[in-house]
Amino acid sequence: MNRRVTSNDVAQAAGVSRATVSYVLNGRTGQSISAVTRDRVLDAARDLGYAPSTAARTLRRGRSDLVLMLLPPEPLGRALAIIIDAASEEVERQGLRLVAHRLPAQGGAPSLVQSLAPAALILITPLPEQELAALAATGLRVASLHQAQENPLAPDLGIGARQVQHLAEAGHQRIGVAVPPESGYAWRVDVRLAAIEDACARLHLPPPVVARLGLDAGEAAAVVGRWLEGPQPVTAACAFDDEHAFALLAGLAAHGRTAPEDLAVIGAEDIPLASLAVPPLTSVSVDAQSLGKRFARMAVASLDLPENGAGDAQPAGLPPVRLVRRASA
């Protein structure tokens, strides 16, 4: 069996010390190593097929080269997928690797962190106070909208407020809200509803009428029927995302009704299919790519990394959402 190539083999081939090999291959700055020596070490490592031991490096540093992103226990939607991709690209620029993990409803973040020893943690889902305290005790760098922002509505990114504002400007007073019933969405649903209720209160509108709606045409038809035929008919609806907006459009069609004449419908996330809906769907666009980059920069800003420019220019505030006007609202 072939013996594993070690840093000592690289040092002998390059004619330098193991310390010099370590400085060069780990990208550490502040050492007076000439460009010629650095190139000689890199050439020797490449020629020998040297691959540094991840386990040994983790033991030496007390952390791995991983940035752990904890996701909520919900299906992976398009916006979340873009956030993960953008964050992954950003941490890879720093020589790290992103690992995204869907955290179960029962939690378990501290034990996962202990087993992986990540360099930093990105929270896309809130954690119980006791788990946050356990993570804080480790000194681990944590990037989170839930703890980093003073405004408790900040994790909604302004989506619900923008939906209500648009509908109110169009003259609607009685607003419905369609949200998913699954428990995995609970934290995002709670924040969205709080944001919509807050926006309605600020604009002196009645409290919104909330419906828990699965992506089912029959359920959607029942919800739309209740809204339209009630003693105080709902004239406009904020959907949790574009998919739930599509469900509302299907519910309208089942009654022979249309948007926006019978019910104005506005979605969120502006997925590519939004423009192909009948009628084309008005939606609130989220800059998921900028949000993913921001998470990554927050996570690695304080790490001792070579050429760590991630923390030099922290973006101010959150990436703004944008209303995309189409025919449905």
TrEMBL record:
Keywords: DNA-binding, Transcription, Transcription regulation
Domain HTH lacI-type: 5-61
Superkingdom, taxonomy of origin: Bacteria
Entry annotated with the keyword Transport: no
InterPro entries for the chain: HTH_LacI, LacI/GalR-like_sensor, Lambda_DNA-bd_dom_sf, Peripla_BP_I
The UniProt record lists the keyword DNA-binding: yes
Protein name: LacI family transcriptional regulator
